[in-house]
From TrEMBL:
GO terms for molecular function: alanine-tRNA ligase activity; aminoacyl-tRNA deacylase activity; ATP binding; tRNA binding; zinc ion binding. HAMAP family: Ala_tRNA_synth_B. This is Alanine--tRNA ligase. NCBIfam families: alaS (TIGR00344). Its cofactor is Zn(2+).
Length: 873
């Protein structure tokens, strides 16, 4: 049975049992501070398990993509350990319990309609004291007692060792299901019976929960290995091709039993993890999720290096992962170029320092051997990480190969001393409960009504949090730590989806609370601010008033980001997908996928495209529809973003259609003006545009125009000639510096002297002269100085070099003369013909050369005559 068939069979089976099929949650749950990546299927149902949300269903089933690094050192070494994997699960929130969970698991495993496994090869474990589960296995399923093993809390309790060691909170015994294979017993399913609340240390610390829950997990890869009769998860149909592809790009043969085989399996695992994570916009960095991805990429690069690979190779495997996973995750195909660009960039960075880093590590190990040391110190590890980007886990692995220990505590202390994150991660309580969770558990809700209005006259205070604790009232006018206020309904938008939170005030008779920020936390818009007058109390009714002018600026910027996204894809291509954004009062920051810097002419076209749409004043329309229907309409959605079943679709004319929960304008014309002020790199393969809208865009253009006018006046040139003038001035400066470096040589004549030698012809100063031994740069500088005078000027300067048998001429006309049709190119060419040469250039500045220096005087006479004719014509 193929992995795709197994996945579908599992979900279909539990649908027949009344479970609601839910999509996989995102791999990076940014709203959940307790984890970096989704580690299990139950994570998206935390509020369901804890009774902190209104239950729309009490049974569910999922196939969840997961990422864990706790067993990373075993990846590739054992048949079953992974960083990225898929977890099949079925769940109950106060509905069915042990009996159904066990009987359904047995049915799915053994019924020929489903998996059809041999019942004789199945055994189970239960928790020591769980007589109920043991009885179901033996009396109802029919397993012989010798196939039901009782285990301690370290093996058959979740969380492990919870009764004796904690943490406090929901927990329960579990039952693990094993299958006999030619390679030994394989654990294929874990059924967790969440039935207790742990309160304090033992004894008598497990209190029965009023609502008992079921949380099960079957590793897709492990179950597929059993069904396909292979001894390793890495040999199933969706992973073995990745292993073989890794062997190809590393130019080695895959031998499962060799050291290279272990490295290739690890590379295959890590590319799956990196492909999925970067697809969800996690890029390599020194912190949090980014650190994990950087660590995985660098481990893979090091493995490739150990097999003789000296150039980037890891990124080449991304298309193979996308192909293997295209049935359940077709969206991976859309981001292949971006994911490859990010990985390749990180590979190149690491390869640039890898050789030097490895040499330094070998010297370290040699020094340790000579001094009979057995531990790599934290200071040494920190230095290698900061200097060579060598993750401590890699150093630890290399040290372990030589039987050296690693001082993790010392490393963390050293990194903290330098103000850096170690990346080691912090264990947090999975079911942490805070003040807002208490409100949620009490059934309280806060409704956002800010799409329709910026003021609500009858909002009721349902929660007050001061110093991190719920309270009944706030009376002190504390200007230090902000107080948090939760209302039953609010026009304030809580920071979310890149849009900043609203500011404003809550007022009533004798009361004024200044709202300095609003954030979405645990499903509540939370108003943070300071009490300026009066007293806040639970149950109090207030007028909630948003700063409407600031909100309008935010609306302008937010609608502009949608048009910018559309314009980027039109000008650069469909790969230019949004990676993140920040929308504030008439200023926006927009991150998008692009492998290189955006060219100046492309930026101009992008800006023009947005402003064209602004001038058309296309209407902004809002529609609510099921997620699947929104996908069919072509609405853009961000990878890695979690969307509800019914989504809000924001359309701007016929150009842009995106899923978005933010506040928007009525029509694009209200943006007023869109102005890009910068474009820069923020990560490998990711660029950032910062732009202004509305009043800030107007102020930017006004201030820039003022600066240009002042520069134009100071340089005495029209605005459009400022860049040329500055370039000429810089050239003059460089030439003067060169003269100083050469002992102060000059052309022997000043611009003032040349001006005095000129003649006036009908209001035009004509200057023709020879500058002995001058080069073209010096002549151009003199011409530029002469043209800056407040009089139309025609200049032709020449120099002869008898030893080289050549003549150089430069002619320049001020703008007034070129506007009248005079042309420096024609002028200098006619003169150069006398000395046997020719020239070219622009109407205002041209250069020529000749091979008969002895005729220069004759040529200069002709230059004066020609100038007079041109002026008088």
């Amino acid at each position: 049975m193929k992995a795709d068939e197994l996945r579908e069979k599992f979900l279909t089976f539990f649908e027949t049992k009344g479970c609601v099929r839910r999509p996989s949650d995102v791999l990076v749950p940014r709203w959940d501070p307790s984890v970096l990546f989704t580690p299990a299927g139950m994570n998206q149902f935390k509020d369901h398990f804890l009774g902190r949300c209104k239950l729309e269903f009490t049974r569910a089933t999922t196939c969840q993509k997961c990422l864990r690094t706790g067993d990373i050192e075993n990846v590739g070494r054992t048949p079953y350990h992974h960083t990225f994997f898929e977890m099949l699960g079925n769940f109950s929130f106060g509905d069915y319990f042990k009996r159904e969970a066990i009987l359904w698991a047995w049915e799915f495993l053994t019924d020929k309609k489903w998996l059809g496994l041999d019942p004789e090869k199945i055994s189970a474990t239960v928790y020591l004291d769980d007589d109920e589960a043991a009885e179901i296995w033996i009396k109802e399923v029919g397993l012989s007692p010798d196939k039901v093993t009782r285990m301690g809390e370290d093996e058959n309790f979740w969380p492990a060792n919870a009764p004796s060691q904690g943490p406090d909170g929901v927990c329960g015994p579990c039952s693990e299901i094993y299958y006999d294979t030619p390679w030994g017993k394989v654990e294929i399913w874990n059924l967790v019976f969440t039935q207790y609340n742990r309160v304090g240390p033992p004894p008598n610390n497990l209190r029965p929960l009023p609502s008992k829950n079921i949380d099960t997990g079957m590793g897709l890869e492990r179950a597929a290995a059993v069904l396909q009769g292979v001894e390793s998860n890495f040999h199933i149909d969706i992973i073995r091709p990745i292993v073989e592809a890794a062997a190809d790009v590393c130019h080695v043969k895959y031998d499962p039993s060799s050291d290279f085989g272990r490295r290739l399996r690890r590379i295959a695992d890590h590319i799956r993890a990196c492909t999925f994570a970067i697809h969800e916009n996690v890029t390599p960095s020194p912190n949090k999720q980014g650190y994990v991805i950087r660590r995985l990429i660098r481990r893979a690069v090091l493995d490739g290096h150990r097999m003789g690979v000296r150039e980037p190779f890891f990124y080449k495997l991304v298309p193979v992962v996308a192909e293997m996973m295209k049935n359940p995750y077709p969206e991976l195909q859309e981001t292949i170029p971006r994911v490859q660009a990010v990985i390749k960039g990180e590979e190149e960075n690491f390869l640039a320092v890898l050789e030097t880093g490895l040499e330094r590590i070998e010297r370290l190990f040699e020094e340790m051997r000579r001094n009979n040391r057995g531990v790599v110190s934290g200071a040494e590890a920190a230095e290698l990480y900061q200097t060579y980007g060598f993750p401590p886990e890699l150093l630890e692995a290399l040290a372990a190969e030589r039987n050296y220990a690693f001082d993790w505590e010392g490393y963390r202390r050293e990194m903290e001393r330098h103000g850096l994150e170690s990346g080691a991660g912090q264990k947090k309580e999975v079911f942490y409960t805070g003040p807002l969770d208490s409100l949620k558990k009490a059934g309280l809700e806060s409704r956002f009504v800010g799409y329709e209005t910026t003021e609500v006259p009858d909002a009721k205070i349902i929660g007050l949090i001061a110093a991190g604790h719920l309270c009944d009232a706030v009376e002190e006018k504390d200007h230090g730590q902000p107080v948090a206020v939760i209302l039953d309904k609010t026009p304030f938008y809580g920071e979310m989806g890149g849009q900043v939170g609203d500011r404003g005030e809550l007022v009533a008779d004798g009361l004024r609370f200044e709202v300095i920020d609003t954030k979405m936390e645990s499903g509540f818009p939370v108003h943070y601010g300071h009490l300026r007058d009066g007293r806040l109390a639970l149950g109090q009714v207030v007028t909630a008033r948003v700063d409407a002018a600031r909100r309008q600026g935010i609306r302008r910027a937010h609608t502009a980001t949608h048009l910018l996204h559309y314009a980027l894809q039109k000008v650069l291509g469909k790969h230019a997908q949004q990676q993140g954004s920040k929308v504030d009062d008439d200023i926006l920051r927009f991150d998008f996928a692009n492998p290189t810097a955006v060219k100046a002419e492309e930026l101009e076209e992008i800006e023009a495209e947005v402003n064209r749409r602004v001038l058309e004043a296309a209407p902004v329309q809002i529609a609510y529809m099921p997620l699947a229907e929104a996908r069919k309409t072509g609405a853009m959605m961000l990878f890695g973003e979690k969307y509800p079943d019914v989504v809000r679709v924001v359309s701007v004319g016929e150009y842009s259609k995106e899923l978005c929960g933010g506040t928007h304008l009525d029509h694009a014309g209200q943006i007023g003006l869109f102005k890009i002020i910068s474009e820069e790199s923020v990560a490998a393969g990711t660029r950032r545009i910062t732009a202004l809208t509305g009043w800030k865009a107007y102020e930017f253009v006004r201030d820039t125009s003022r600066v240009i006018a002042e520069a134009s006046a100071a340089l005495n040139v029209p605005p459009q000639e400022i860049p040329t003038r500055i370039q000429n001035m810089l050239q003059e400066i460089r030439q003067l510096r060169k003269q100083v470096a050469l002992g102060g040589r000059s052309p022997g004549v000043t611009a003032e002297q040349l001006w005095s030698q000129g003649i006036d012809v009908d209001g035009v100063r004509v200057i023709v002269g020879e500058i002995p031994a001058a080069d073209p740069d010096l002549m151009r500088q003199l011409i530029d100085q002469l043209r800056r005078r407040n009089m139309p000027t025609a200049v032709l300067l020449a120099a002869k070099h008898p030893e080289e048998k050549k003549v150089v001429m430069v002619a320049g006309l001020s703008r007034e003369l070129t506007d009248r049709g005079m042309d420096a190119v024609k002028w200098v060419r006619s003169v150069a013909a006398v000395v046997g040469g020719g020239g070219g250039g622009r109407p205002d500045l041209a250069q020529a050369g000749g091979k008969v220096p002895e005729k220069l005087a004759e040529a200069l006479d002709l230059a004066r005559e020609q100038a007079v004719k041109m002026i008088q014509a």
